[in-house]
Amino acid sequence: MSLLAAHHSKTQVSPSDLPLKTRIVIVLVCLIQGCLLYLCNHFSDREWMIPHSSALLYTQVLSGSLPLIFVLSVNTLRDKILWKALLAYTVIFVAMTTWVKWNDAGVKDYDSLLFGTFYLALFLIVFVTLPWLQARINNPSSPIDYSELHGNIWKNTITAVLTLLISGLMWGILSLGAGLFKLIGIDFFYELFFRHEIFMYLANGLIVAIGVLISRTHPKLIITVRNLLSLMVKGLLPLLSFFALIFIFSLPFTGIDALTDKWSSATTLLTTMSLLLALLVNAIYLSSDGIDKKPYPNLIRYIINGSLLVLPIYAILSTYYLGQRIVQYGWTPDRLRASVVVGLSLCLTLAYASAVVRKNNIWLHSLGSINKKMMWLIAVIVVLCNSPIIDPYRISVNDQMNRYSTGKVSPDDLDLIMLRFDSGRRGNDALQALRSDIKFVSDPRRKLKLEKTLLQTTRWGSYGDDDKRPYAAFTPEIARKNIQLAVGTPSPESTWWESLPNDLGRGNDIGDCYLIANACVVTTLDLNNDGNKEHVLCNFSDPKEPFCQVYTYKKQGWVIAAHIDFNFRDTLNKNTLDTAKLKNIILGGQLKAVPKEWSDIQIQDTTVDVSYYDLR
């Protein structure tokens, strides 16, 4: 009997082996998980729940992870091993959540790496440790063989893919049904399926339960899919191994200097080749028909073995190019995480190369023990990287600020966005320290950029806080104080001043008018010959990119009718005006409205807007 067949005969679970009570519990747990995730999402933006955001984060983390571990592992509710494991997971996840919450600095950015990498870390921990828990529950007293772990990894992966497939099909059918009824004027099903979030979360929870139950009660389906995927991988592995070999053989002729100018992409591609080749080898590992039978003919096996022997070269080159990047630009959270991945890749490739040279009747026999050690190493490293022990934010911020203090990085090149959005609390503490750094704030533009960065809650320029109100620094009173009035221009209406903070979230740099005195000028012109003057607000905070905005009053209030920037630069170039002269012209009240030469066309009561391109 083959290794794979022996493994399946020992751990196969038939439908009758999973008690009806356990199946019901699996469905209930998935539905409860859907309710908890709905509550976390539903209340996360409610003003009265903001003081309890920490509780929501803990609930979201635990409700997103523990139920999945439970439903993928449970055989009976009286299993002490399962409950002890869930307790251990809870302790680890609570500790990691406490750490990431402490690092949170009020950044509300979907592109923030702080929480993105945290959730990825949780996934990796579950992925590499769950097979051990499943194997221990199925065989409480015997040593865990790698064939069991290998089978559990396959089963968990296929379960996830199957669940996604069921989800896509179910939501497609619901969308089709709701659309059909909507055609005849019945919106009930559309409103139920896609307007009520509670239904969506409960439906997704039910889908997860269905996917888990199918995979756990139909082992033959899992085996069939696994064999099919193994067959596909078996055909692709020699092709990938061939490319891995000829690339290494080509390097002596092209030289590694060809990669010098492509450090980032070289590190990514080389590491991806190492990990992908190792992944495909693992996919067909233990898939032969017999213990002594090799999965490939000798020639193909030699190509695969050769590619495994040169894998350390890929990892060494990745390490070299990443090291060059770090030497030139210093540590960042991204580079530190990349160094962890590259380091693990180096360990893995060296171990796989050693498996090739070891003599044994079974092809790559030692991969089992290597993979067992690597799984635990990955879990430990991931936990440490999300703890104060290997703190990527502390290491990165200390290194960047040290480079700044020693002159390796100029004040203008210091990455404020990275410190604000990618380095957590420590990065924001460093930004606060720059406020009192004489060298940095000696330049008014750098000081302005620093203040704006500190006020931003997203890297795209939003200044709204948790309850969506503008920051205290952006008030009509501050605007009145800092914005200059052109000669002959009366102070605009109070409604206009009060409308200015509403423009902060529209991608404009209007915040400069609040943060620096005399950076902006306002004047008035009648630009549409209606007898009412429009307000023209011009921003000169950046001498290279001055711009103006035209405000007009509509029924809904003051709106921006035009944004002038490129025309401004053309004006400066044609008339050899610098920003200072242009500002003085506007301050002197010398702006005039010039009627356009070309008009629109009216057809009876309909006006056609005609674009004349460059004609004036």
Overview of this structure, please?
The protein is mainly alpha-helical and 616 residues long. The chain has 23 helices and 7 strands. The strands form 2 sheets. The protein has a 5-stranded mixed beta sheet, sandwiched between helices. Strands 6-7 form a two-stranded antiparallel sheet. Helix 12 (333-357) packs across helix 14 (392-405). The longest helix has 38 residues, at 146-183. Residues 1-16, 288-292 and 465-470 have low confidence and may be disordered.
- The assigned structural class equals mainly alpha
Spatial strand arrangement across the major sheet:
1-2-3-4-5
Main beta-sheet strand count, sense and barrel state: 5 strands, mixed
Beta-strand portion reads: 5-15%
Number of helices: 23
Proportion of helical residues? 55-70%
Helix/strand order:
HHHHHHHHHHHHHHHHHHHEHHEEEEHHEE
Radius of gyration: 32 Å
Poorly predicted regions? 1-16, 288-292, 465-470
Concise account of the structure shown:
It is built from 23 helices and seven strands. With 616 residues, the chain is mainly α. The longest helix is centred in the N-terminal third of the chain and has 38 residues.
List the helices and strands and how they pair.
Elements: H1 3-11, H2 20-43, H3 53-73, H4 80-103, H5 113-138, H6 146-183, H7 188-194, H8 197-217, H9 219-254, H10 263-284, H11 298-329, H12 333-357, H13 367-385, H14 392-405, H15 416-421, H16 424-434, H17 438-441, H18 444-455, H19 476-482, E1 484-485, H20 494-499, H21 512-515, E2 520-525, E3 534-539, E4 547-554, E5 557-564, H22 566-574, H23 579-587, E6 601-603, E7 606-608
Parallel strand pairs: 1-2
Antiparallel strand pairs: 2-3, 3-4, 4-5, 6-7
